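Why do we care about 3D structure at all? Because function follows from shape, and shape follows, mostly, from sequence. That is the central idea of this module. The next example makes it concrete: a single protein chain, its amino acid sequence, and then its structure expressed as C-alpha cells.
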Amino acid sequence: MSTLTYAVSDSMTMLRRNLKHALRYPAMTISVVAMPVMMLLLFNYAFGGALGAGISGAPTGGGEYIDYVAPGIILMAATAGAVMTAVGVCVDMTEGIVNRFRTMSISRAAFLTGHVVGGVLQTLVAVALVIGVALAIGFRPDASLVEWIAAVGLLTLLILALTWLSAGMGLVAKTPESASNTPLPLTFLPFLGSAVVPTDSMPTGLRWFAEYQPFTPVIETLRGLLMGTAIGTSGYVALAWCAGLSLVGYLWARSAFGRTAKR
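And the structure:
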C-alpha cells in the first residue's frame, strides 16, 4: 500500500471514530441545531411583522419575511457547527489520546482530517434539519434542482472553511470550555451582515462593515440561488472568501498541530 492509501485509510478510521462519538453523545449536535431554530422562530414570529414591513417585497404582516430571513439563518446553522469541531479537537488534545496516537503507526494527517470531515458531515445534517424547520413554518424557495445543488455546494465550501478554522481554535485552546467559546463570534457575525435586514438599512459605519465582511456575499449568493434574487458579483466574492478561509484555516491547523507534536 502507498503512503497516500495509508493516509486515506487512517483518516477513514478517525472519521468513523468521531461519528460514533457524535452518535453516542448527541448533545453538541442538538445544541448546534437548537440555536438556529430558535433564532428562526424568534425572527419570523416575534420580529417578522416589524422587520418585514421595511423590506421590499415583504408585506406589512411579515408573512414573506421568512423567505428573506431563512437563508441567513441557514448560514448561521453552518457557522454554528464550528463549535463541535473546536471542542472535539480540544478534548482529544487535553485528554492525552493524541499522544497515544503518536506512538502508533498512524498517519499524522489522519487526526485532523477525521475531525474536519466529521465536523462537515455533522454540520450538513444540522443545516438540513434547520432547512426542514424553515420549510415547515412557511419558507418557500423557488430554486431549481441545479440551484439547490449550487446552494448546497456553497454551504459545504463555507462549512469546510469554518471547520478548518475551528480545528485550529481547538488546537490552541487550553480547555474544552474555552474551545466552545472561541468560535461563537463566527456564529453571530452573520447578524452583522444581511442575514436579517438589508445592509442599506444600517448606519454608515456598520453598513460598510456588513458589506465587506465575509458572510454577506455568501448570504446574498445563497438567497439569490434559493429565492431568485440578483446575485451579481456576490457569487465570485463568496467563493473567494471560502477558498481564502479554507487555506488560512488549513495552514493554521497544520502548523498548530505540528507545534504540539514538538512539546
